[in-house]
Amino acid sequence: MQVQGWVDTCSHAGQQVSACLNYFAVASIEAWRERCGQPLAVCRSSKSYATQQGTLASWLCRAETQAASIACRPYAAKAFRTALQEIRALSCEADPSMFVPQLQALAGATGVAVVFVPAPPGCRVSGATQWLNLDRG
Fold first, then answer.
1. What is the pLDDT of residues 101-114, one digit of tens each?
2. CB-CB neighbours of 49 under 10 Å
3. CB within 8 A of 4, min separation 6: which ones?
4. Which of 38, 68, 121, 129 fits a 20 to 30 Å CA distance from 44?
5. Residue 5: exposed, middle, or buried by beta-carbon count in 10 A (0-12, 13-18, 19+)?
6. What is the DSSP string of the chain?
7. 60 exposure class (CB count in 10 Å sphere: 0-12, 13-18, 19+)
8. How far apart are the first and last CA of the chain?
9. How many angstroms separate the CA atoms of 106 and 100, rounded?
10. Which residues are paired to 136 by β-bridges?
């Protein structure tokens, strides 16, 4: 998490633990285990490599934080299924600066927040999906 700049590097171990707990918005290591021990996300990963639990949890937390800042309408399953036709067509575009804003706008209009977070070292996951709350996917 330090390498990605998600948490500051601290000179004292206790401060570092506190910074990490703050990143996950929990008060204790036990609370972290309860919140992050069994991720609620469905992940796409390689069966050939093991993913470290802490690394996966930090990546998912980063994605949740970014997704929470995206303006979305309430989730509408039928509208999302319809939008998927346009979303699939975007896969022909090679330039992310062109397709990502369109993808996020199309998905956001149906209540789905889409974010792209590079996976940190040790995280063998290439994609994930998770319900953030009842109104958005």
1. 999 999 999 999 99
2. 10
3. 62, 118, 120
4. 68
5. exposed
6. -TTTTSS---SSHHHHHHHHHHHTT-SSHHHHHHHHSS--SEEEE-TTSPPPHHHHHHHHHHHHHHHHTS--PPP-HHHHHHHHHHHHHGGG---HHHHHHHHHHHHHTTT------PPPTT--EEEEE---BTTB-
7. buried
8. 25
9. 10
10. 133
Q: Are 75 and 136 in contact (CB under 8 A)?
A: yes
Residue holding tokens 């998905």?
107
Judged on CB neighbours under 10 Å (0-12, 13-18, 19+), 84 is middle
Q: What is the pLDDT of residue 34?
A: 78
Instruction: Indicate the length of the chain as a whole number.
Output: 137
User: Scanning the structure block, which residue is given the tokens 């992940």?
Assistant: 43
| Residue ranges covered by each domain of the chain | 1-69+117-131, 71-114
pLDDT in tens, 16-70: 888 878 878 788 888 877 777 666 666 677 677 676 777 888 888 888 889 988 8
